[in-house]
Design brief:
Blueprint: E1 6-9, E2 13-20, E3 27-31, H1 42-50, E4 54-58, E5 67-68, H2 79-92, E6 98-103, H3 105-116, E7 121-127, H4 142-147, H5 149-153, H6 157-165, H7 167-178, H8 186-193, H9 201-211, H10 223-228, E8 239-244, E9 266-271, H11 278-281, H12 283-295
Parallel strand pairs: 3-4, 3-6, 6-7, 7-8, 8-9
Antiparallel strand pairs: 1-2, 2-4, 2-5
Helix pairs in contact: 1-12, 2-3
Length: 296
């Protein structure tokens, strides 16, 4: 059963979300990344519903229908803010136990939420992002420095102008180069790109990519949370990582060798002939991996 757009209030946000599947099914929250929105999960969600799960796909802060409750709230793109949003969203839905699946920004939020809400999160699945890679002091290979060109671009005046005033052409270029084996139709891109018209999208995107490298100041309201994740704590939540073997932005090396961060069960799978969006490129395979992990 699929429902129309719904909303749930957290301390800072009115979160827009879609829900499908039987209300009595075990809840699985699918969290999208950047530049993307909740529609990225459509094909995966259908398979999870068929497997009997209750599937919930929220829009991140700054995307689509999600709105801040107060105009004065800082438009932070800090990753801990995304993790806190996810935990509060689950609480707003009164979920006693639930699983999280995240891609890109959503994967980082899922890792953080798995630490903050370890008593309630039963399983974590992270796509395209390794854990423990948020620190600005991390050593990057020169290949990865090249892959992060858009991070550095956003620290320039010209880059900021592009994000604010040419966002659709910019994000379409991102999709084209991050999807090496599969090209989305204009209709598919445009359906998601409508979410980027959000009035806070550019501010949150720019803050997220500049604060990570010390090119913007973090907001004091998240200082205590930031301290909890520097260094990254070990996770007890059973965690599965799915990474495209040909990811041109987060090299598969970025998720390799992370076993030491996990005290619970941990598994990593590479998906062949896959770039940065496994859920769009290989939705059937991604859904099979998720269902198997949730049933384990």
């Amino acid at each position: 059963m699929k429902t129309p757009m719904q909303t749930a209030k957290t301390s800072l946000l009115e979160v827009g979300y879609l829900e499908s599947g039987a209300p009595a099914g075990f809840p699985v929250i699918l969290v999208h990344g950047w530049p993307d929105d909740a529609l990225t999960w459509n094909r995966v969600a259908a398979d999870l519903v068929e497997a009997g799960f209750r599937v919930i796909t929220p829009y991140l802060r700054g995307c689509g229908p999600t709105r801040f409750l107060d105009a004065a709230t800082p438009r932070s793109g800090q990753l801990v803010a995304l993790g806190q949003d996810l935990v509060e969203f689950a609480a707003a839905l009164k979920l006693e136990r639930y699983a999280v699946v995240g891609h890109d920004w959503g994967a980082r939020a899922a890792y953080i939420a798995s630490s903050l809400d370890a008593a309630r999160i039963t399983h974590c699945v992270a796509l395209s992002v390794g854990y423990g890679t948020n620190s600005p002091t991390q050593k990057l290979s020169y290949v990865q420095v090249q892959n992060y060109w858009y991070h550095w671009m956003m620290a320039t005046e010209r880059g900021r102008d592009i994000v604010r005033n040419d966002r659709h052409a910019f994000t379409r270029h991102i999709w084209d180069i991050w999807l090496p084996f599969w090209k989305p139709t204009d209709d598919e891109f445009n359906a998601t790109a409508a979410s980027f018209n959000h009035p806070d999208w550019a501010d949150i995107v720019l803050h997220s990519y500049t604060v990570r490298w010390g090119n913007a100041a973090p907001y004091p309201m998240y200082a205590a949370l930031e301290a909890q994740f520097d260094p990254a704590p070990k996770l007890a939540t059973p965690t599965l990582v799915l990474h495209g073997a040909d990811d041109p932005v987060n090299s598969p090396a970025m998720s390799a060798g992370k076993e030491g961060f996990f005290t619970g069960r941990y598994q990593r799978e590479l998906i062949a002939r896959c770039g940065h969006f496994p859920q769009r490129e290989h939705p059937d395979a991604v859904a099979r991996h998720i269902v198997a992990w949730l049933r384990s």
